[in-house]
Amino acid sequence: MGFKGFVIRSYEESQLSDKAQVMDLERRCEIGQSKRVFLFTDTLGDPICRIRNSPMYKMLVAERDKEVVGVIQGSIKAVFFTAHKPPPGLVVKVGYILGLRVAPPYRRRGIGSGLVRRLEDWFLSNDVDYCCMATEKDNHASLNLFINNLRYIKFRTGRILVNPVRNHPYNMNSSEINIQELKIEEAEAIYKKHMASTEFFPKDIKNILKNKLSLGTWVANFKQPPRLSSSTTVGGNGQTTASSWAIVSLWNSGEVFKLRLGKAPFPWLIYTKSLKLMDKIFPCFKVVLVPNFFKPFGFYFVYGLHHEGPFSERLVGALCKYVHNMALNNSKDNCKAIVTEIGGDEDDGLKMEIPHWKLLSCYEDFWCIKSLKSKRHNNISNDNDNDNDHSHHILEWTNASPNRTLFVDPREV
Ligand SMILES: CC(C)(COP(=O)(O)OP(=O)(O)OC[C@H]1O[C@@H](n2cnc3c(N)ncnc32)[C@H](O)[C@@H]1OP(=O)(O)O)[C@@H](O)C(=O)NCCC(=O)NCCS
């Protein structure tokens, strides 16, 4: 496909020049206008690595005179469409867009939108019902492109919480909380029973759990009720803390790609330098140090986070500390941060329990969605009934409570 002097074509993995040029483009692209710290991704010589674990994936490049000036990645998977009832458990195909980059000198020439449209065509040819993407609230270029230009709808807000791996383990209160690792089959059964109504819950959850990047699944419950006032051991609906539990799984994203701090605001630099100095002068204080994020580092991604019952947010907090301590002990993974994404505004209590650094985290990750039915309708036929049905679905999806839990697939991080 050619337009305005650019050609859009598939990324050729076997071509060394494609690989080198895409990696160079990634290095040159800052994402958004964040006033917070800015992280670059280092794909370890494999630019397509972020989607390689998805059931179906594609990478496109925009080229001008043999120079790669834009890139986009997409993956396809089947998820449960839970906003739609009945029938329960309806499965839809979702295309996920990520890694859109256009070289700075070539921006505002229609390359970004051209790449998205071309990826949507690939989705359509594979019977995808909806496509979605996520971007930070302050990435105006991206939001304008998807919402104003390409008619995506913002439908959820996620919160990405980042916790640096400290130089000291968290103290785990093992007399109060019990943490147990689950087998893959046990984890699958629990997720299917309790999370199947979660938005974007993947049909192939088992494939995620048994992927070599999945480090395990843990559940936590209270051995004893939390030591608060006696009345607080019973929840609003009469449940006791004995029924409370939480579950998380862990994904070794650092095995696929690394992150590196591109730039950091001045207060961050001052803060980290003073911590180092304090540690040097008063080693007995066991000052908590921040890792050197300017060198490429790995991270663990917490997925499949779910909790039920009174005070179960505390159980999630305990699980996050537990996986932090695991990261500290597994030095071979070079894991320097634990990343968790939670959804919605209701999660304030949960956010407080999950250890994270505000400066590294993003509290407003906008999820946008588009039904491809209208595009298919234009392309192929005038199947009005189905078209109405899809508009109805997307309305249900966008009108459903923003507090619904979102399953963030670790294969698309
Ligand atoms: C976002 C990005 C891919 C846009 O690429 P692009 O080739 O410039 O996009 P297009 O030329 O197709 O722009 C289409 C529309 O998007 C909107 N848009 C694009 N860049 C914009 C900007 N900097 N500010 C405001 N709106 C912008 C405009 O509505 C534009 O239409 P117009 O030029 O007719 O006004 C590019 O800026 C980029 O690579 N940014 C860094 C990486 C990034 O943030 N990626 C998105 C992650 S999801």
Automatic annotation (TrEMBL):
Domain N-acetyltransferase, chain residue ranges per copy: 6-180
- Record-linked InterPro entries: Acyl_CoA_acyltransferase, GNAT_dom, Plant_NAT
- Kindly give the Pfam families that the UniProt entry links to this protein: Acetyltransf_1
Gene3D superfamilies membership: 3.40.630.30
Q: Where is the signal peptide?
A: none
Protein known as: N-acetyltransferase domain-containing protein
Q: Which organism is it from?
A: Citrullus colocynthis (colocynth)
